[in-house]
Amino acid sequence: MDILHLVDRLEALITGSRLIPLTATRLVDEDRALELIDQMRISIPEEVKQAKRVQQERDRIVAQAHEEAERLVELAQQDAVELVERDTITTTAERRAQTIVERAKREADSIKTEADNYVYQSLSELEANLMRTLTVVRNGLSKVEQDRQQAAAEGVSTETGNPDDTTPAE
Fold first, then answer.
1. For the whole model, what pTM was predicted?
2. Residue 53 domain-assigned?
3. pLDDT tens per residue, the chain (170 residues)?
């Protein structure tokens, strides 16, 4: 039987008992009161057992919730560590990639400068060679022109009987 119901019945027994005039004392039916008290004694251990079971179940649920919470916190910490590691790895990789790109740009600029210098030097040497060749060609043309003019001048003097002509007259 429910302990609260028994307490209510005991209270009703007491409040329903007769008052002794001019006092706050009541006359209570002893048998009924003792019967209710016996029922309470029987009911209380059952209520206590039930309360203990409820308490144990609550403790088990709370312990299970704590374990789950600890597990979730541990998983969250592991995830956080992994994210930090990944972020660190990513940041390191990005920095390294940036360094590699910068180095490649510097090397490309250096190679371009060296190539420009090589091309300039080669073209300068080619220009010098062409100038020498052009000078040789001009000198050759000049010489041929002089020889022609000299031959033409000598041919005119041969026809006019120039004494410088060493060929016998016919």
1. 0.38
2. yes
3. 587 888 899 899 999 999 888 888 989 999 999 998 888 888 887 778 888 888 999 999 999 999 999 999 999 999 888 888 888 888 888 899 999 999 999 999 999 999 999 999 989 998 998 899 889 999 999 999 999 999 888 877 655 555 555 554 44
In a domain, 162, yes or no: no
Residue type, 32: R
Give the containing element (helix H, strand E) for 27. Answer: strand 26-27
User: What are φ and ψ of residue 85, in 5° steps?
Assistant: -60, -45
DSSP 6-24: HHHHHHHHHHTSEEPTTSS
Q: Print the domain residue range for 86.
A: 3-137
Residue 87 CA neighbour count, 13 Å, CB half: 6
Q: In angstroms, how far apart are the furthest CA atoms of the chain?
A: 199
Structure tokens at 13: 């027994």
Question: Residue 162 is encoded by which pair of tokens?
Answer: 């120039």
Q: Take residue 106 and report the two structure tokens written for it.
A: 């510097």
List % helix, strand, coil for the chain (3-state, nearest 5). Answer: 85, 0, 15
Number of alpha carbons in the 13 Å side-chain half-sphere of residue 136: 6
